[in-house]
Design brief:
By secondary structure, the protein is mostly helical. It folds into two domains: 14-68, Arc Repressor Mutant, subunit A; 72-193, Tetracycline Repressor, domain 2, CATH 1.10.357. The chain is 63% helix and 0% strand. Helix 1 crosses helix 4 and helix 1 crosses helix 6 (89-113). Residues 1-7 and 123-129 have low confidence and may be disordered.
Length: 203
Amino acid sequence: MNSPRSGRARRLAPDARRAALVEATLPLVLRHGATVSTRRIAEAAGVAEGTIFSVFPHKEALMRAVTAAALDPGATLRELAAVDRSLPLRARLVAAVEILQSRLTGVFGLLDALGMHRPPDDGERCGHPEHTSMNDAFRAALADLVGPDAASLRVPPQELAHVLRLLVFSGTHPRICDGSPLGAEQIVTTLLDGLSHPGNPPC
């Protein structure tokens, strides 16, 4: 006969506990905003409320950690690297746009839930070394997706990557797109084919 469970959370290393608390907090912030209580967070994480403050000095520090985790590009870059290179270029780019849009939708949703209009200044400021490095990493990842099809482009892969990211951002941001977001295929079609009829360029 199995012994009854104590209901106590298993002991985790500090970094693992921190990550678990951040993971449990993110969906609650998206649903309830920054006013979500630490009691509710503790319940979702399966820990005592005091455990939160043994990891984070205050609730604001936990919110900053949640925001930093949502902005971390690592998972998105790994997804881009995993896109099947045997697919045609158009299909590879559609897959990349879907990955980028998923990231941006999550980031925009979190910022909106926190009542923020832009990422926090610490680490995401435009021109900040970390921000520049992240942009470079995304451009490199998208340029790498072009691969041997670079010869079919009129511009270098890095320029295509830059324009693609601009289209994805503006076509996904709820305020910029006026509530009519662009789909992944629509973005890629605009990028590769433009908006004029084939064989009938505008004057």
